[in-house]
Amino acid sequence: MRRLGELVDLKLAEMTRTAALNASGEKGAAVATVTGGEGRRIMLEIEQIITRVDAVTSNRGYQNMRALTDATWMLLATIAIGAVLLVLLVGGAMRLVMEHSAQIETARRSLSEQNDTLETRIRQRTRHLERANRELQSYSYIVSHDLHAPLVNIMGFTAEFERAAQAFRAFLDTFPAGDSPAEREAREAVDVDIPEALGFIQSSTRKMDELISQILKLARAGSRQFNAEPLELTALFAEIIAISKHEADAMAATIEIAPGLPAVRSDRLALQQVFGNLIDNALKYAALGRAPVIRISARIDGEEAVVEVEDNGRGIAAGDLERIFELFRRSGPQDRAGDGIGLSHVRALTRRLGGDVTVRSVLGKGTTFTVTFQAVLRQKQEAADDSGTTGQDHHGRG
Amino acid sequence: MTAVQPVRIIMVEDDEGHARLIEKNIRRAGVTNEIVPFPDGSSALAYLLGEDGTGAAHAGRPLLLLLDLNLPDMTGLTILERLRVSPHLRRMMVIVLTTTDDPAEIHRCYDLGANVYVTKPMQYEAFVNAIRQLGLFLSVVTVPEVP
Fold first, then answer.
1. What are the sequence ranges of the domains in chain A?
2. Is the pLDDT reported for residue A307 higher than 90?
3. What is the mean pLDDT of residues A170-187?
4. pLDDT tens, position by position, A115-156
């Protein structure tokens, strides 16, 4: 190629010369130069070189073309493979997604089925419990009624007996007093033994009548329909305390309501009965020689209201902690008036309010009752519960 | 009480003791009317409605029913219902005597046409008073005849 450059230079120089010759009118000399050996030789050589270059370059171009084609094909193939891979990938991805969503759908369906089953089961359980509760209520109702009937007889005929004894005594009094042993005995029987026996029979039947009435009251309270209303616990407790104020003052008792108690939505009367009972108990079972201090606190925990009534009373023995909630059971020295109804009433009420009552106590130090109930009372259940109870309970027990 | 046909008292009471106490105290209150006792609902209904089941057997006679609600074979309410659909007995005077003091049950009795509802009191004095007053009541009241 360098040679070609030199030759082109030579040729150009020659052509310049020729042109100059030509220009200076020496046409003949110019033609001679062009056609002359020198110019001709240069031209030939240039031609050869160009031919050679041509051959070389054409060969290289072919090779380049070839490489280019190959590369293109490679590229195409790569792109094709890429496309296929892409399609596969997308396909796979879609399949995965579809499989996944199918799985999710299946899971969702089985979950909702399980939910349905669970709900059905909960409904069933609730129904069973409601039925058991109703049966228990109607049972106590029937028992208390059927126990009343024989009591009417005992009371009635005791009175008949008393009447007969009085008639007999009046008859004896018409005779002047003698001193035969038979007469003394007869007079003693009429004056002392019979009235004493009748007195015990009557006081016992009266006691039994009271107990039966209490059970009846419990059974009726159990079927009373609750009425949920918004209640400020602070105000509610203040009302309850006001009821026991006289007694509390007489005992120099302190009753503290913690500040900032929450508001709830529940049955006023039921809560009054529950906490009225607990406060009465706290006053009644105060420790000897220690002024009662009662503290009431409350908080909302999730869906529940939790109320604590704490006292510094005589406490309850560990063995009696569950027993005190049973009907007619009382703990500790039986030196205070009571019939063992209050706490079982409290428990029955709190359970109907969707909660429970528990107790912890240190004998001789004090007792804390913890009452939980639904902060917002669900009423529908209660209504259903009640319509059933009323229908059953008020039917033909005479 | 008419001079011609004195009121016949029909007492439906399954408890023998109650029946006896009721009767004794009615008698003590000076009521001398005939008392026909029945210990269960079926026999009382059979007597009241008669063989034809309409109650026509008692036509022309004033009747008074002392009814206990808690009977072994049926409730007193059933008897009340049966009487109220009988053309002859529907105006018959009915005094319900029971231990129930449940307002709902008292209302039901009045709804079914009971004329008086008396709770059997537990205390003897109150019981006697109730029966005596009932007896006095019986001696002054005019009981409708069975048509």
1. 131-222, 227-378
2. yes
3. 86
4. 888 889 889 988 888 888 778 777 777 777 778 888 888 888
pLDDT for position A136:
75
Partner-chain contact B18 A152, CB within 8 Å: yes
Residues of A in contact with B98 (CB under 8 A): 398
Q: Do β-strands A263-267 and A228-232 pair in parallel, antiparallel, or remain unpaired?
A: antiparallel
Residue A188, both tokens: 């003693």
CB contact under 8 A, B124 and A220: no
The CATH number of the domain covering residues in A227-378:
3.30.565.10
Nearest to A396 among B17, B75, B125 (CB): B75
Dihedral angle sign, alpha carbons of residues A312, A313, A315, A321: negative
Contact B105 A156 (CB under 8 A): no
- State how far residue A170 is from chain B, nearest Cα, in angstroms: 19
pLDDT at B89 over 90: no
pLDDT band, residue B110 (cuts 50/70/90): confident
Domains delineated in chain B? 10-138 (3.40.50.2300)
More confident residue, A388 or A92: A92
Subunit contact B17:A159, Cβ cutoff 8 A: no
**CB A145, CB B100: distance < 8 Å:** yes
Burial A314-343 (b: 16+ CB within 10 A, else e): bbbeeebeeebbebeebbeeeeeeeebbbb
Residue B56: pLDDT band (50, 70, 90) is confident
List pLDDT tens digits, range A216-238.
Answer: 777 777 777 888 899 999 999 99
Interface test with B, best of A138, A143, A148, A152 (most B CBs within 10 A): A152
User: How many A-B residue pairs are in contact by the CB < 8 A criterion?
Assistant: 79
ipTM value, please give it. Answer: 0.72
Mind spelling out the 3-state secondary structure of chain A?
Answer: CHHHHHHHHHHHHHHHHHHHHHHCCCHHHHHHHHHCHHHHHHHHHHHHHHHHHHHHHHHHHHHHHHHHHHHHHHHHHHHHHHHHHHHHHHHHHHHHHHHHHHHHHHHHHHHHHHHHHHHHHHHHHHHHHHHHHHHHHHHHHHHHHHHHHHHHHHHHHHHHHHHHHHHHHHHHHCCCCCCCHHHHHHHHHHHHHHHHHHHHHHHHHHHHHHHHHHHHHHHHHHHCCCCEEEEEHHHHHHHHHHHCHHHHHHCCCEEEECCCCCEEEEEHHHHHHHHHHHHHHHHHCCCCCCCCEEEEEEEEECCEEEEEEEECCCCCCHHHCCHHHCCCCCCCCCCCCCCCCHHHHHHHHHHHCCCEEEEEEECCCEEEEEEEEECECCCHHHHHHHHHHHHHHCCCCC
Contact B127 A155 (CB under 8 A): yes
